[in-house]
Design brief:
alpha/beta; 5-stranded parallel sheet; 4-stranded mixed sheet
């Protein structure tokens, strides 16, 4: 059993564009699906040892497009969505950060009294890592969004237009995905920093996401993919709150780590070089 994780697809992917970060090229992804010798199976079947499953994280058009490609190719697929982004039609704060980095024409940007050059791709990666760390130290998604917008203004960027593939899907599209038979599961109300939440905050974030999915889209979520993939469930967190907890942590063994804990493996470019990924 292997449960693979991706974030979506984009046409003519450019690996040095931060707004293409963690995305696969649409045409290559479609070819990969069509040529894969065995179909991806439903998430529960994979956990039961009956094949491999594919999961897609986040509430973006890139994620929905990839899910529809899977459906059209006869593959089962699960999309883990953040309900707040759909309910409020709000882009992710890290999408704003990626747009900022791609848009900035200056050679230097300041963050927390430190200067970060932006001349090369590794320079921009270092700045992104520092900005992400600073954003995650803030307590709410709204504060993170405001922080990135303030960073943009500091380099004379007044707006951060989100490209279509990173736009948040509508509730209507979510319902259409479900109607196709694409499985929808819970990525939390927010894409927040779970490691910094109190247990009560975490319970509320997971439950609010599940409640919205139930009420708005008739989805009964039984799996939870933790944002950023590495935070473990607290020992005192009731299992009934999340069902099965999904990581995507390269530092840990892949597969079932405990009765209610799964570690997914990130689908890599190796899969597109003629290889079928193995567990």
């Amino acid at each position: 059993m292997a449960i693979w994780a991706i974030h979506g697809i984009v046409d003519q992917v450019n690996p040095e564009r931060f707004t293409h970060r963690n995305l696969f090229d649409s045409a290559r992804f479609q070819t990969f699906l069509e040529e894969r010798t065995s179909k991806f199976v439903d998430l529960d079947q994979a956990i039961g040892g009956l094949g491999d499953a594919l999961t897609i994280d986040d509430s973006t058009s890139a994620a929905a497009d990839a899910a529809e490609y899977c459906h059209a190719s006869g593959h089962a697929v699960t999309v883990f969505v953040n309900s707040r982004n759909i309910a409020q039609q709000q882009p992710y704060w890290f999408t704003f950060l990626n747009v900022l980095i791609d848009s900035c024409a200056l050679d230097l940007i300041f963050l927390d009294d430190m200067s970060f050059p932006l001349n090369t791709f590794p320079d921009r990666q270092r700045f992104r890592k520092a900005a992400k760390r600073a954003a995650l130290s803030l307590h709410s998604e709204g504060a993170r969004e405001a922080f990135i917008l303030q960073l943009a203004r500091s380099v004379n960027i007044d707006s951060l237009p989100v490209p279509g593939h990173l736009s948040t899907i509508s509730l209507d599209r979510l319902r259409r995905l479900k109607a196709l038979g694409i499985r929808i599961e819970n990525h939390g109300w927010t894409h927040g920093n779970v490691a910094a939440m109190s247990q009560q905050e975490l319970i509320e974030d997971i439950q609010k996401g599940a409640d919205w999915l139930r009420d708005a889209a008739a989805v009964l979520a039984s799996h939870y993919a933790v944002p950023f993939g590495v935070a473990m469930p607290p020992d005192t967190l009731p299992i009934a709150v999340y069902g099965l907890w999904h990581l995507a942590d390269e530092r840990r063994p892949t597969g079932r780590l405990d009765t209610h804990l799964i570690n997914r493996v990130t689908l890599s470019e190796d899969a597109f070089g003629g290889k079928t990924p193995a567990a």
